[in-house]
Amino acid sequence: GQKPNAGDACTVGFAEAETTVLECAGTIQLKVIASRAAARPFEVGYTTEEGTARNGVRFRHSDGVVVFDTGQTERTIDVQVIDDDSWQSDEYFFVRLLEPGGGALASPRPNMPPMKLGVAKTRITVLNDDMPGTLSFDVDEAYTHEGMRVTLGVLRTQGTVGRISCKYKTSDGGAVAGRDFEEVNGMLVFEDGELFKTLEVPILRSEAHDVEDDESFRVVLFDPSPGVKFGGTTDEDGTRSFCDVVITATKEIPFCRRVMRKCVNRDLTL
Fold it and tell me: Which domain of life is it from (predicted)?
């Protein structure tokens, strides 16, 4: 018969070199296409390969063959992705087409051009769909006075999946740690589904305190678990969240002072 011309080889490969899938999808279908219809059935092998995504954790290993029947130019490979209830960063794995013998794919019949691989490897990125949440203080400003303990609430919103944490610390302003308040630092841990935590800062009595002036300091949330965001008052890149604590110069009950300030801001009078 007529000898095949290598330039007329039928190309078989993935339709896309990269694709993404939500982990909740369960299965992703990958298209494998041939550059022209087959005159008789032929097959090509495939296998999954780990990247940052691990077999049994983010996807299930699969291997086998894709069969093109006579006249077909498109087939699909189904690969299972694994959904879980914990937050993980986006990860990827690969599916590779196998080239028998390290050369061109076997021709469907002797008088047809040889088959060759086109896009032989595709990368699948598994997108996480479990939201661990956004952490923020329940107020932007809190008011207190000497000798009290100020309690600040931290809210978890926009997702409650998994065990998360962030660090907190006090930061000097006009009020200084060791003179006006006790320096505190630590870690807040939210268990799966937990929505609210509190932290306390003791306010010191100071003989040197100027009773005419309010003084303030900040409590800062920082270093969150992977995937956790900060809300409320944050820095420009959103890596820290703040609450300003004002130590009032008067002996008013702090709650009353706080309500009055809110009412004034709304153009109301008491």
Answer: Eukaryota
